[in-house]
Amino acid sequence: MIDDGSNPSGSTPPRYATILGQHLALPIRDYFQVVEQDPLPPQLAVLMERFEAAVAAHGQVVAFDFRSDIIKALPALRTFALSLVGDVSRADDLVQETFVKAWANQARFRPGTNFTAWLFTILRNQFYSELRKNRREVEDVDGTHASQMTSLSDQEDASTLKVVWKRLGTLPAAQRQALLLVGAEGHTYEEAASKLGCQVGTVKSRVSRARSSLLDTLGVVVSGQAPAA
């Protein structure tokens, strides 16, 4: 029997957009767990090596359990960073800075809570800090927007992660594919274009639109960022 959309009971029918978002949330979470079984893509492996080298330069060694958790979180974290800064090199720098700060503040992590969400908050706050240092990147001549970008409370860590996952699930498939290929899998724009069978400019456009959509969700306004389609 086909549902004609009527609702004789008078109850409010579920919104299809909400159902779709919930349906896609698990596949996206599963997608970000792929590195638990498979070797890191070359670009992400290089990023991990950079982090370990930075720690080793201070005469320290990355604990195995911390390293394992970092690797599990890396695809989601890099995708988030790319959505914020829109540039692969800057995203990698932001992720590496996040790793180093997380390593230096391990004692502040509460066992039993969401480690990836904790990293998201460190990365987000680092991004906001960089915006404050260079307000020219923000359409905020009088500094009002920058002054409002404060570090959020610990209970909001998981909330940020859920918002990003949910928004990823509702992105158009083409935009989501491009963002995940470049962010989660660490491919260059050229490699992503080859895999998707389109022009490099098309991939960049899709990543930019996906990025804009996520920024809108998080309430971040960056100079030069086009509105989400």
What does this structure look like?
The protein is mostly helical and 229 residues long. It is 63% helix and 0% strand. The chain is built from 10 helices and no strands. It has helices spanning 16-31, 42-56, 64-85, 88-104, 115-133, 144-148, 157-170, 173-182, 189-196, 200-218. α5 (115-133) crosses α7 (157-170). The model is unreliable at 1-13, 19-23, 140-155 and 221-229 (pLDDT under 50).
Entry summary:
The chain is an all-alpha fold. 63% of the residues lie in helices and 0% in strands. It starts with 15 loop residues before the first helix and ends in an 11-residue tail after the last helix.
Poorly predicted runs of 5 or more residues: 1-13, 19-23, 140-155, 221-229
Multimeric organization: single chain
Structural classification: mainly alpha
Average of pLDDT: 75
Beta-strand percentage range: under 5%
Largest sheet: none
**Euclidean distance between termini CA atoms:** 35 Å
- The helix fraction, in percent, is 55-70%
What overall geometry do the principal axes of the alpha carbons give?
Answer: globular
Order of helices and strands: HHHHHHHHHH
Q: How many extended strands?
A: 0
Alpha-carbon Rg, integer: 19 Å
Tally of helical runs: 10
